[in-house]
Write a structure and sequence with these properties.
12% strand, two-stranded parallel ribbon, single chain, 11 strands, 46% helix, seven-stranded mixed beta sheet, alpha/beta, 16 helices, binds 4'-deoxy-4'-aminopyridoxal-5'-phosphate
Length: 410
């Protein structure tokens, strides 16, 4: 029944394919700049000290069992997650205008939001039922959204000339979109470019989107990991909430807790302030619960327990903020070191963007041929679009990488 015409061989996931090729490479100088996972200065995965502490506490808990969590997840975790993303004193929380479900990390949260929109979103303009994503965006957005049959459109984002934000292109496309379109925004540390709007640009976008009655969907995968400050990295979301938007948020704990494989995350729906907001949130929550039940029944427990312990304990929370500064600080140092090496080598071109971009990734501006040469000649592994994971650089390989780049750019 499943002939090649019906089920053609799918291409390998580019990122996980890259990871496999890196593993196979036996050269001792090889450098992995592909996957977006934090590495310490010895290129090793890093268990955050605070996560280790929470894990030890959990394992000693005699009451720990393996029962199901509720459909919407661990209540202490989802309520702490609301406070983390919206702020402790958020009026949206005190007005009870937020409904939160624990999800299978950020991917699951994007999916739940997209599935909900596909099923229920009724735009005031009939042709507005499409979701706009940045070009480029995290590759998985495209397939998650297509899977739930939500029409996908794009807005310009990255300027090849400046290697910064194409704000005018982004703004005018959002301006021309039919009113009440859905706009997917990266809350901070845009993947794959590392380029974010400034606060002033966010304000302009919020103003425009209010006028156009667009619906914002924030994807937040790097809170605290990008700048080292949890509040700074959630600034854009909170500006939109303060402006009275109804919106949705996908929140991942993969990077900021280093809980990649534990799949801890949340989906939040925030209703606009209105007398019927609590009623709306209850109805939306009831439908989200049905979607969740039919797809995963109940979310995975262990990562959420770890995160919950940390989020709900002042001492552990403070330690976590230290760990976030360790990770974001090391990445910023690597940006600085890479730029300095390239400048010192007088590598042709401008390299300012390396330190202006933020978060896990940098769009280097290297083209596909240069990327292929880096892999063949220097055993450097990165995605074809010229994106590097800054976390793959360390004091032992950053100069080697800069020299390799210098070699292919000349
Ligand atoms: N959104 C974006 C923009 C991301 O970069 C990521 C992580 N690669 C995610 C969502 C979700 O990742 P996860 O499912 O591991 O939380």
């Amino acid at each position: 029944a499943f002939s090649a015409e019906v089920v053609p061989q799918a291409p390998e996931d580019p990122l996980f394919g890259l990871m496999a090729a890196y593993k196979k490479d036996t050269d001792s100088k090889k450098v992995d700049l592909g996957i977006g996972a934090y590495r310490d200065d010895s290129a090793k995965p890093w268990v955050l000290p605070v996560v280790k502490q929470a894990d030890d506490l959990l394992r000693k808990d005699p009451d720990l069992n393996h029962e199901y969590l509720p459909i919407s997840g661990l209540a202490d975790f989802t309520s702490a997650s609301q406070k983390l993303i919206l702020g402790k004193n958020s009026p949206a929380i005190s007005d009870k205008r937020v409904v939160t479900l624990q999800t299978v990390s950020g991917t699951g949260a994007v999916h739940l939001g997209a599935a909900f929109l596909s099923k229920f979103y009724t735009p005031s303009t009939p042709d507005a039922k499409a979701i706009y994503v940045s070009s480029p965006t995290w590759a998985n957005h495209n397939q998650i959204i297509t899977n739930v049959h939500l029409p996908l459109k794009t807005y310009p984002y990255f300027s090849k000339q400046t290697k910064g934000l194409d704000f005018d292109g982004m703004y005018s496309t959002i301006e021309q979109a039919p009113s009440s379109s859905i706009i997917l925004l990266h809350a901070c540390a845009h993947n794959p470019t590392g380029v974010d709007p400034t606060q002033d640009q966010w304000k302009k976008l919020a103003h425009l989107m209010r006028q156009k009655r667009h619906f914002p969907f924030f994807d937040c995968a790097y809170q605290g990991f990008a700048s080292g400050s949890l509040a700074t990295d959630a600034w854009a979301i909170n500006h939109f909430v303060e402006q009275g938007f109804e919106l949705m948020i996908a929140q991942s704990y993969a990077k900021n807790f280093g809980l990649y494989g534990e799949r801890a995350g949340c989906f939040h729906f925030v209703a606009a302030p209105s007398p019927s907001a609590q009623d709306e949130v209850a109805r939306v929550g009831s439908q989200l619960a049905i979607l969740q039940r039919s797809e995963i029944s109940n979310p995975p427990a262990y990562g959420a327990r770890i995160a919950s312990l940390i989020l709900n304990d002042e001492g552990l929370f403070a330690q976590w903020e230290e760990d976030l500064r360790t990770m974001s600080g090391r990445i910023k140092e690597m940006r600085k070191a890479l730029k300095e090496h390239l400048v010192r080598l007088e590598t042709p071109g401008s390299w300012e963007h390396i330190t202006e971009q933020i978060g896990m990734f940098s769009f280097t501006g290297l083209d596909e041929k240069q990327v292929a040469r880096l892999r063949e000649e220097s055993h450097v592994y990165m995605t074809k679009n010229g994106r590097i994971s800054m976390a793959g650089l360390n004091t032992g390989n950053v100069e080697y990488f800069a020299k390799a780049v210098d070699g292919v750019v000349r």
